[in-house]
Amino acid sequence: KAGVTQTPRYLIKTRGQQVTLSCSPISGHRSVSWYQQTPGQGLQFLFEYFSETQRNKGNFPGRFSGRQFSNSRSEMNVSTLELGDSALYLCASSPGTLGETQYFGPGTRLLVL
Amino acid sequence: GQQLNQSPQSMFIQEGEDVSMNCTSSSIFNTWLWYKQDPGEGPVLLIALYKAGELTSNGRLTAQFGITRKDSFLNISASIPSDVGIYFCAGPNAGGTSYGKLTFGQGTILTVHP
Q1: Band of the pLDDT at B1, cuts 50, 70, 90?
Q2: B15 near B113, Cβ under 8 Å?
Q3: B103 interaction partners in chain A (CB closer than 8 Å)
């Protein structure tokens, strides 16, 4: 099976812009979770989608949003970018039952100038 | 919130040495996961543990799920240069409806000198 894919791999934006990141889960997986990774805060959970519905959300401001499509592909959007949003954004997929193992994509490296 | 305390924070070892790292939590976990991350890449799953007391091996890696369900350790035997990277423990906390959320340890940075 193909693994989790994320596009783009690298992105440079300026403050105030918005960005959309994409994630394609492993075939057959219906759950997609998003994480932000920074040197200072480590890996932090953003939100999780299952069957096009957000089931769980972390403690991030409303500028961070996401959605999931009927084919389980997911996108996350960050509006009004801030310097502190520079990070590695990771998505992970799993079949969708509580407590399952997650498999991560390679991540999107976002740099905000 | 949920926290995993992972130690040590970093290790500098010689090729061929064995490595041990562990993770503890104040809360119970139903699953313990160990991942390895290379710079600029996503975490790669090494071992998944699902039962208290479970001991699982994957090549030179061995991990155990603590009986109290509040700790886990990962051992790497006969380290090689490609073992370099950051190792994370992670788990979904027991109970509740915390779908899709893993809590991660702070990571152990492993450096292997040839």
Answers
A1: low
A2: yes
A3: 45
